[in-house]
Amino acid sequence: MDKISHISIRKRLLAVILLITLFFCALAGRLLYVQIINGPRLQMLAYEQWTRDLPFTADRGDITDINGNVIASAKTTYTMYCRPNDVKDGENTARYVSQLLGIDYSALLEKLIKKGVSETRLCRKITREEKINIEAKNFAGIYFTADSSRYYPYGNFLTQAIGFTNADNAGQSGLELQYDKYLTGRNGYSFTETDLIGRELEDGDTYYVPPTKGMNVRLTIDATVQGLAEKAVGDAAAKYGAKSVSCVMLDAGSGAVLAMAQAPSYDLNDIPRDDIGKLMEQSSLNAITDVYEPGSTFKILTSAIGIETGNVKQSYYCGGSCTVDGQRIKCWRSIGHGSQDFVHGIYNSCNCVFVDVALSAGTDTMYGYFDKFGLGKKTGIDYYGEVSGLMIKKDAVKNVDLARIGFGQAIAVTPVQLAAAVASCINGGYLYTPYFVEDITDVSGKLAYRGRESVKNRTVSEQTSATLKQYLYGVVDEGSGKNAAVPGYNIGGKTGTAQKYENGSIARGKYISSFVGFTEINGREVVCLFLVDEPQGYVYYGSIVAAPYVGQIFSGMYSYYGVAPHKGEDVQTFIMPDIMDKSLSEAAAILKASGIDYEFAGEGGKVVYQLPAAGAQVSSKTVTYFCMG
Q1: For residue 418, what are the contacts with CB-CB under 8 A and spacing of at least 6?
Q2: At what angle do helices 299-309 and 351-361 cross, to 10 degrees?
Q3: Which of 269, 359, 465, 539 is the residue whose CA sits 20 to 30 A from 56?
Q4: Residues catalogued as catalytic
Q5: DSSP letters along 281-329, please?
Q6: pLDDT tens digit string along 598-625?
Q7: Is the entire prediction scored with pTM above 0.90?
Q8: Burial class of residue 574 in the structure, from the number of CB atoms within 10 Å of its CB (0-12 exposed, 13-18 middle, 19+ buried)
């Protein structure tokens, strides 16, 4: 028998020692992983088995106006739970609760008597009164936790801009979504020691982790000014039966949003969640998410380009139309404006003048300034869903396209885009990024975010801006914008009436009537764009349908801010004559003799409609409208 060598024994001994060492190293590594690395998770799992936790929903932060008036806040509601093992009379409990809260009896009873679960949630968003009524019955196994729901003190107010939250209090649209990470609080919990089947121990402890409220968002909007805009859009929608009405108001010197209103709308405390189509349609903030052909309000930008580049003539002639690339382009006034200078071309909103300005400037120049004005690009406003607008590609633009663009056709913008561009034309030539939020602070008042004015581009010179402002004041004093006038105050602006298109062709009888106005209030320049989409009836000119509401809003602001009139005016009053059944020449002669300006539509032989009606008291600031048929 061979002898085992000492070397062989030592090798075997070394192998055994190595195996034992590896085993203890693996064991130590496992213990290290279980106790140190994975320890907190396992402790939490064990704690969850020993305790029952209930959530306490944190209050969402408030949204306020610039003055601290609360527009969106949190209110306490309650969530009802049950412990099936403790329920004594499921049928009576289910019968009473289902009748009180209007929920399904069978589904509620199934939860109340279901075995194998320690607790289950029965219903959310219960009011304090409902909670008190249920607690008075002393139903075994029923208990409540405090919850938080969104509440809007003003109801139907800033609806589309503010947006709404879902059942879990998370932002779903509008500013509620845009600033959700700031508004969302940190939930709290209570942990109660229980036995194996989830029953609370008599000598067990309960631990509380309090919730933390979300941050407060302060808007640039003043609730009173917003109220003026809300009333104006509501009045216009009711009077003209319009598809929609929108109002955008900006501080021209910073880009801050001063008001943004829209009709139709809905109460944020009663969101039409059961009608998804209606909810989607009325939740969209048209001023930011929709585009439209601006029509004559766009002439402000064409005017600015013409003045800045020197492509403005001393005299123009309008015979009711002009021809470009063999195509006839009509002026809104079919009999034409005759000979006029550039200033009166603005006052008269003459299409032929702006066709000439656009063609004189040329495609490269016009598109270069469009880029400066931010057309075809998002403004960068702090709101989800903004669109860029629509423009024909520069290399595809024909002369006839450029001619139409000059007076606001063949180009589509968003209302906020146009308002920002117009603001740059009257503030010295600075294009600002519009913004909604002034600042955001936490529960202790510490600043977390501040909205800041931001200049994107320099559009025109201060001289061009000052010149154009004077021309636009004249539009309200002497031209087509007279219905926006407020006696004793300087208001400038421009009317707009744009035909709508459907399936690539003009939609008969469908218009967007608009007016963009501006004024100075306590040293601050304010721009207000007002749009009425598809006004019904004979009246559709922006000078009649939209301009008066801008004047109404500005008048309210003068009163609110205590701005006294600074100029005296001799405003004459007249009794509106009867021009019904008169020919165009007869009606024009009667109105001219009375000192009343007018606009008309249609090509019939007799007047079939007039506004104001015969016998009404009108002033030298009134623009009368009549329709030929």
Answers
A1: 294, 297, 298, 516, 529
A2: 50
A3: 269
A4: 296
A5: HHHS-HHHH--B--GGGGHHHHHHHHHHHT---S-EEESSEEEETTEEE
A6: 767 666 678 777 777 787 766 666 677 6
A7: no
A8: middle
